[in-house]
Write a structure and sequence with these properties.
The structure is a single chain. By secondary structure, the protein is of the alpha/beta class. The chain folds into two domains: about 5-190 and about 365-380, Glycogen Phosphorylase B (Rossmann fold); about 195-360, Rossmann fold, CATH 3.40.50. The chain is about 30% helix and about 20% strand. The protein contains twelve helices and 16 strands. The strands form three sheets. It has an eight-stranded mixed sheet, with helices on both faces. A six-stranded parallel sheet has the order 13-12-11-14-15-16, with helices on both faces. Strands 1-2 form a two-stranded antiparallel sheet. Helix 6 (about 230-240) packs across helix 10 (about 335-345).
Length: about 375
């Protein structure tokens, strides 16, 4: 082991490059994997939940979230909950993320664990107190470019990548950006639970809050934040008054006053993951109206494949990874006129489109992705 005094003032204990293969075996005395995640487990179901759930078939996992708001008298405690047989989630009641290590130490029988799994470099202070035989950084987004990101996040990520033995990325663009800084970087772009979302193909009865909305429906589900091109949505809705635009998901980091409020745009709020196929079934067309800005420069939208599993025509703005991977079967648009034209020309029974969907989906399951991740972990510790 070696200690490094980095610019963040954190004394990081780096994992031993010759770590034993036993770190990939189940730890009978406690948690096998400690996950540090910026997203709430109960928030929109996405990459962390998919990956962690499948990892839990092999390991006992503890997920540490970012601090939550707390009532007086509850400070310096965790809100603990078991979300699955092998997954516990702890929410720290502290003011700052750098207070988590001390709180965690008071609640843990030891400070060394087989695997540390990071989704955000903001948690790097834990490496001053806790040791892991293997560190994995699953970089799903370029968080430093998101609205409200802390200025120190870029430096924190550099330190985390230096400490990590493995870096996974959530898309090709992210992979190209990170591989130059770490020799063991691997691209695992968006995957899909095809069985779950293909249920939409057989659903005949739609949720009650869609009952008053007339067809055709062009729908979106996911987080509604600075990554959505609200001007494009507004202009397209104005030019297509006969089309219903349905937005499903929480509004985050922007104000509701920022949203376009028109008679043919409907905001239905966040829905449970289990209910999404029923909403998707009601869509005539699925959309990804992302803005082209810093926060979307490296995204690889998981919903692209989820829409495909439901066999829906897809309209998307020209997100780099979507253009590179799916331009042959996704309608790509730049302007509201393009968007309106794509709505008019999209057909659900497009045989070629469905054949391409099937070919793409064949190799993109979350089960395959997680098993490949584990294979890389096994190879890494045996080097």
């Amino acid at each position: 082991m070696k200690i490094n005094n980095n610019k963040q003032g954190v004394n990081i204990t780096y994992p031993d490059k010759n770590a034993s293969r036993s770190i990939l075996k189940k730890n009978e005395t406690g948690y096998d994997v400690i996950v540090f995640c910026h997203l709430r487990w109960s928030f929109v179901y996405q990459r962390p939940q998919h990956v962690i759930t499948r990892l839990s078939r092999h390991y006992k996992i503890l997920v540490i979230e970012e601090p939550i708001h707390f009532e007086p008298g509850l400070e310096n405690t965790f809100h603990k909950k078991r979300v699955a047989p092998n997954i516990d989630v702890w929410q720290p009641r502290v003011k700052r993320i750098d207070e988590i290590p001390a709180l965690l130490e008071r609640n843990m029988p030891n400070t060394r664990f087989p695997i540390g799994w990071f989704y955000s470099a903001a948690f790097i202070p834990v490496l001053e107190t806790f040791q892991f035989d293997m560190l994995v950084y699953d970089c799903m987004d370029e968080l430093s470019l998101f609205k409200g990101a802390a200025k120190e996040l870029i430096a924190q990520e550099k330190a985390l990548m230096k400490a990590s033995q493995i870096v996974f990325t959530g898309g090709k663009s992210l992979y190209e950006a990170k591989r130059k800084d770490h020799p063991n970087t691997h691209c695992f772009k968006s995957s899909v639970d095809e069985t779950h979302f293909s249920k939409a193909c057989d659903i005949l009865y739609f949720p009650d809050d869609l009952a008053h909305i007339k067809n055709p429906i062009v729908g979106y589900f996911g987080v509604i934040d600075e990554r959505i091109d609200l001007d494009l949505l507004r202009e397209t809705a104005l030019k297509s008054p006969h089309v219903a635009f349905v937005m499903i998901g929480p509004v985050v980091k922007i104000e509701e006053n920022d949203l376009p409020w028109l008679e043919n745009i409907y905001y239905l709020g966040m829905k449970d993951y289990e209910d999404l196929p029923a909403y998707l079934a009601a869509f005539d067309i699925a959309m990804m109206p992302f803005a082209l800005n810093d926060s979307t420069r490296y995204i690889s939208p998981t919903k692209t494949l989820e829409y495909m599993a439901a066999k829906k025509p897809i309209i998307s703005t020209k997100i780099r990874d979507v253009v590179r991977d799916y331009s042959s079967c996704v309608n790509l648009v730049e302007t509201s006129d393009d968007f309106c034209e794509a709505i008019s020309n999209s057909k659900i029974d497009n045989k070629r489109m469905l054949e391409e969907y099937a070919e793409i989906l064949k190799n993109t399951s979350w089960e395959t992705t997680v098993e490949k991740m584990r294979d890389i972990m096994r190879k890494t510790v045996s080097v």
